[in-house]
Amino acid sequence: xxxxxxxxxxxxxxxxxxxxxxxxxxxxxxxxxxxxxxxxxxxxxxxxxxxxxxxxxxxxxxxxxxxxxxxxxxxxxxxxxxxxxxxxxxxxxxxxxxxxxxxxxxxxxxxxxxxxxxxxxxxxxxxxxxxxxxxxxxxxxxxxxxxxxxxxxxxxxxxxxxxxxxxxxxxxxxxxxxxxxxxxxxxxxxxxxxxxxxxxxxxxxxxxxxxx
Length: 212
Ligand SMILES: O=C(O)CCC(=O)C(=O)O
Ligand SMILES: [Mn+2]
What we know:
By secondary structure, the protein is of the alpha+beta class. The protein is built from two helices and 13 strands, in the order ββαβββαββββββββ.
């Protein structure tokens, strides 16, 4: 398998304003992976605590002006890594460019995220259905990039009980949602055991958002 040079295919609408872009990140994968690896060396992903008192299933780290964090008191955007007290490092240009071009491909021009959450899924981890609603400006879309192990992304509607479509995300796929579906429920089913030639025994997701 060639890890870097496979070609993307056309966007697929999964809901109003929401698109699956299979393979969109593949042409930029070498630069992207370099950024991810470098970042995780300095800011390892950690399973943060939730205010409910449980560790999150997914390990997280952040880049950008605002990092998404959770602790025993609350969750939301913070300018500093709680583990080091340092500001989060800037989002590298290669990732900003990928986010802007994926957003444009889905019809959202001029997307400039100020937050890049890095989710690291070991086999057995998952993310339950939730809305992304800690941001101030819902006119901006969300760009979500998948690396490594495959996963089933569930994308529902405005209500938790709405039926979800199940998207079989692969390494290099991007999902973009905004407009009418900006606050739609979504989640990730339990990641199955496996090994990916680039990421090893994990799936990594980059979620780019405009937090403030
Ligand atoms: O891992 C994914 O594909 C989705 C992540 C997500 O929804 C989030 O971090 O809010
Ligand atoms: Mn989310």
